[in-house]
Amino acid sequence: MRIAVPKEIKNNENRVALTPAGAKEFVKEGHEVFVQQTAGEGSGFSDEAYQLSGAKILPTIESTYEAGDMILKVKEPIGPEYALIRENQLLFTYFHFASNEPLTRAMIRSKAVCLAYETVEKPDRSLPLLVPMSEVAGRMAAQKGANYLEKPLGGRGILLGGVPGTLPAKVLILGGGVVGTQAAWMAAGLGADVIIMDVSLPRMRYLSDVMPKNVKTMMSNEYNIRKLIGSTDLIIGAVLIPGAKAPHLITRDMLQEMLPGTVMVDVAVDQGGCIETCEPTTHENPTYTIDGVLHYCVANMPGAVPYTSTLALTNATLPYALALAKNGWQDACLHYPELRSGLNIIKGDVVYQAVAETFDLPYVPVSYYLNQH
Q1: Is residue 288 classed as helix, strand or coil in its secondary structure?
Q2: What's the pTM value of the predicted model, to 2 decimals?
Q3: DSSP 8-state code for residue 132
Q4: Residue 300 annotated as binding?
Q5: Same domain for 159 and 269?
Q6: What secondary structure letter does DSSP report for 349?
Q7: pLDDT one-digit tens code per residue, 315-344
Q8: Which of 9, 76, 100, 114 is deepest in the core (most CB within 10 A)?
Q9: Taking the CA atoms of the chain, what radius of gyration do you get in angstroms?
């Protein structure tokens, strides 16, 4: 198979979907690898390193898309890339379709096969290709929140961990999954007073067992959220419903109840955000303020630490990418049930129910395509 890796063109996105080590694995198995010129530079990988691994360097994004039977990316294609995607081409990347109708309709028109990292799901409901970036984003959420609590950046002017004789900042984390857990570890390690909210009692029992003493758990509901937000300094949104839009747990009217300079970091922005006033921002312009509350809603947070993020992501994606290249997407999805759940759009049909329901589109069960095979 011909594997193509275009350079990411989303604002300040420095990750790359394949390392030179990964390219070598494809070449060893007899595949051809094409990498766009400078695609790996942002993550610290030179064109020469890819060439030494057996990959061919192509000069433009157009020639890279043209060369590939399978396109490996990190982030979803954006406007200039839509016309480069062709019928029956396999795209393996993060898509987050439920929060992006123009992208969804563009991929339907392309008649490509869209396999989304974020909905690849194992039988135990874990998301192996989302976990690495969730770990990075969760840790960054606490780090960024601590930074933006500083007065010159728009926050309350409070040190996350405090010092002797002063109280630490209060941090509220909405969601006790991978993002929320990692955010809690970081915030707690800096000395903050942390509360994690979730709707799963078993999950909260687990968190109560493993977290340090400055982390508490609480049932997530509107009453409890309103009870806490008036005295909270940093709110981190970490809610995920695989493949679907995140629910709005923080509504516009709640901002009036918050302290001026409260900071909100919405890690769920890729899936529409769990904060109603959340709008995607970029690393170039990461924040905005509404009603005195600072919002940080960067849609590709791990892109700010591309070396760490690229290695963490490709460690997880490479085995699946190799399987897709070796077997083709249909056989690979039959042999790896988790890949089957990653299929979102096939040749113009939406085969992931949550996406179809979000935009009121016809839904075709994925079995229609796999049974044909």
Answers
A1: strand
A2: 0.86
A3: H
A4: yes
A5: yes
A6: E
A7: 999 999 999 999 999 999 998 999 999 999
A8: 114
A9: 21
Tokens 């039988």, located at residue: 123
pLDDT tens readout for residues 199-223: 999 999 999 999 999 999 999 999 9
Beta bridge partners of 287: 296
Give the residue ranges of DSSP H helices in the chain: 20-28, 47-52, 61-67, 79-82, 101-110, 131-148, 178-189, 201-210, 222-229, 306-335, 337-340, 353-358, 367-372
- Taking only the tens place, the pLDDT of each residue in 119-160 is 999 998 889 999 999 999 999 999 999 999 999 999 999 999
Q: Is 155 helix (H, G, I), strand (E, B) or coil?
A: coil
Q: Quick check: is 270 catalytic?
A: yes
CA 55, CA 47: separation in Å to the nearest integer? 9
Give the pLDDT of residue 303: 87
My answer on whether 56 and 174 are in the same domain is: no
Query: What is the domain extent for residue 100?
Result: 2-119+306-372
Q: Is residue 151 part of a domain?
A: yes
Predicted pLDDT at 300: 85
269 is in an annotated binding site: yes
SS3 letters for 54-104? CCEEECCHHHHHHHCCEEECCCCCCHHHHCCCCCCCEEEECCCHHHCHHHH
Alpha-carbon distance of 249 to 63, in angstroms, equals 44
Q: Could you tell me if residue 257 is inside a domain?
A: yes
In a domain, 130, yes or no: no
Look up 331 and say whether it is catalytic: no
Catalytic site residue from 31, 96, 248, 295:
96
Q: Is 266 annotated as a binding residue?
A: no
Q: Quote the pLDDT of residue 11.
A: 82
Catalytic residue among 193, 266, 270, 349: 270
Q: Establish whether 139 is an annotated binding residue.
A: no
323 annotated as ligand-binding: no
